[in-house]
Design goal:
The chain is α+β, with helices and mostly antiparallel strands. 24% of the residues lie in helices and 24% in strands. The protein has 5 helices and 9 strands; from the N terminus they run βββααβββααββαβ.
Length: 193
């Protein structure tokens, strides 16, 4: 996995190999607001223990938070100076703060989390619905369907992955081996509009 992380207080990124890298300007500019939010929430100094990373593997979500590990992973596409970056980082920091203040007792998007978001000046929302102009371009992913066909009786079965253990029930009932031929067909290319 290509991932980099930073210790927010040190203002640097660390690669998987432990190499020190400079923080990208969008994240560097958010260190001060993050410290301000944490201070506002009664957790000054927590930024010393938070690890923030970018990952290209996040495609459906803009970020993930792991409160016990004090870790936030942001979608790599947010590095492109996205206007959403500040709100997304605040959203994830509010999860960390809610966990630090209330422990496991609070729900991920419960009233405690919502109060933290409001006090930071953001509308508490679980999901960000993007307009066409705000959609962050990704690499796109092709989606395939696998067609499992019986060469004897022409029965077909489809799946999102190839399943080599499937057999034709009609043919196996007649005492045949029931082996299916598997072919792959492109259903949708997310890179296309």
């Amino acid at each position: 996995m290509s991932e980099t992380s930073c210790n927010a207080a040190k203002g640097c990124l660390m690669s998987e190999s432990g190499e020190r890298l400079e923080l990208p300007p969008p994240l560097r500019s958010l260190l001060e607001p993050m410290r301000r939010w944490l201070h506002l929430w009664g957790l000054p100094g927590l930024d010393q223990h938070i690890s923030i990373g970018f990952s290209a593997r996040l495609r459906r979500a803009l970020a993930r938070c792991y409160p016990r590990r004090r870790r936030v992973i942001l979608a790599a596409s947010l590095q492109e100076a996205s206007p959403l970056l500040e709100e997304v980082l605040c959203h994830e920091c509010a999860h960390l703060a809610a966990y630090e203040l209330y422990g496991d007792a609070c729900k991920p998007h419960g009233p405690e989390w919502a109060r933290l978001m409001e006090s930071a000046g953001f509308t508490p929302r679980r999901r960000v619905v993007l307009s066409k102009s705000e959609i962050i371009p990704g690499k796109g992913r092709r989606q395939y369907v696998y067609i499992h066909s019986c060469p004897v009786c022409q029965t077909q079965r489809t799946a999102r992955r190839a399943v080599g253990t499937w057999r034709c029930p009609c043919c196996t009932e007649l005492g045949l081996d029931g082996l299916l031929e598997i072919s792959k067909r492109l259903v949708r290319d997310e890179g296309e509009s």
